[in-house]
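Retro notes (design track)

What went well: tokenization of the new backbones is finally stable.
What didn't: we kept losing track of which sequence belonged to which structure.
Fix going forward: every design gets posted as structure first, then sequence, in one message. First example under the new rule, 351 residues:
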């Protein structure tokens, strides 16, 4: 098996844009689809074979520190590109570079401070990012080894480093790769996408010091051009409502299993059906209140690192694992009730 090529913008959305009557929009979308296809097959990286990596059993003597490197592709597609900023180096005159560097740091900080984890693999994995990828590239991706960000087309998408949760989402695919290793297809693939949205949202909330009630629960807010009728790529609070635009189309995410989308596109709808587990996490987090990373996030982290999931895990199996994790950590208290209630509300059984 190979490491998944995971993008923030799903192919079905780009395919819709590629058929736009606006030549600039269609051209940029087609170019992005071609670049994605090329990048998807550019390298075959082995999946980790040593099993899930759990949180360290004891705190290290010195606090873990990130090892970040940002590269500039200079609007080409060769990776990683030219190194432009390393760990501890001064900010550059390029705001995109600096946002990527800061987003890597914010993601590292959340995993370290909330969960005691040293980077995505739990062992200090260097955090690598390439910016200014290709021309008018409307996506961001994790290729199993690093993150890559486009500048957008300035018609639909702006710079992909603008929302910190987009940066965190892509890096969290690395976390999944080194833990539960969820297969990027059908329900396990939707869970893979959902886990990235969950931790992307937590990074954003942690960086802003927000409680679950204060958070907007949007993924990619600020990514769309002002002319687009939409607020974000996805809404965990209200899946299916993130955008409704003449050019972009309508957000297709369901919030309940009754509306589960069966499709052969997008690896079995991994970016679409992720709305269901996304909404379950939102419901659990807001039911518990306070900072979402402290209890709901802790439960999801325990599931991902607990070694009980298989690569083909389905929604019901993941849901049951969250209930077991809540009971293991908190007993028969509010946490287990909130988790059980959340999954029931989206139509996923937990037993």
């Amino acid at each position: 098996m190979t490491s998944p090529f995971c993008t923030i913008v799903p192919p079905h959305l780009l395919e819709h844009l590629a058929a736009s009557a606006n030549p600039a929009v269609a051209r940029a979308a087609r170019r992005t689809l071609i670049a994605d296809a090329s990048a998807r097959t550019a390298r075959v990286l082995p999946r980790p074979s040593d099993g899930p990596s759990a949180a360290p059993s004891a705190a290290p003597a010195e606090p873990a520190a990130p090892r970040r490197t940002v590269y500039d592709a200079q609007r080409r597609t060769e990776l990683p590109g030219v190194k432009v900023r390393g760990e501890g180096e001064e900010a550059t005159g390029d705001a995109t570079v600096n946002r990527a560097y800061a987003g890597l740091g914010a993601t590292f900080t959340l995993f370290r401070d909330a969960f005691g984890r040293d980077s995505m693999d739990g062992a200090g994995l260097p955090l690598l990012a390439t910016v200014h990828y290709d021309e008018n590239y409307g996506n961001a991706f994790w290729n199993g080894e690093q993150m890559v960000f486009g500048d957008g087309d300035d018609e639909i998408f702006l710079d992909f480093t603008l929302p910190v949760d987009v940066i965190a989402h892509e890096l969290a695919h690395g976390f999944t790769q080194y833990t539960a290793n969820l297969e990027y297809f059908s329900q396990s693939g939707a869970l893979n996408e959902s886990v990235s949205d969950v931790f992307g949202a937590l990074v954003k909330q942690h960086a802003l010091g927000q409680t679950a009630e204060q958070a907007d629960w949007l993924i990619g807010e600020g990514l769309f051009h002002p002319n687009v009728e939409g607020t974000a790529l996805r809404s965990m609070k209200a899946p299916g409502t993130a955008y409704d635009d003449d050019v972009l189309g309508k957000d297709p995410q369901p919030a309940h299993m009754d509306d589960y989308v069966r499709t052969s596109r997008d690896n079995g709808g991994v970016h679409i059906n992720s709305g269901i587990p996304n909404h379950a996490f939102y419901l659990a987090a807001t039911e518990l209140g306070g900072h979402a990373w402290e209890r709901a996030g802790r439960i999801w982290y325990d599931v991902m690192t607990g070694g009980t999931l298989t690569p083909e895990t389905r929604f019901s199996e993941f849901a049951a694992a969250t209930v077991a994790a809540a009971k293991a950590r908190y007993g028969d208290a509010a946490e287990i009730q909130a988790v059980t209630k959340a999954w029931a509300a989206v139509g996923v059984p937990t037993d």
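Added context from the reviewer: The longest helix spans residues 186-208.
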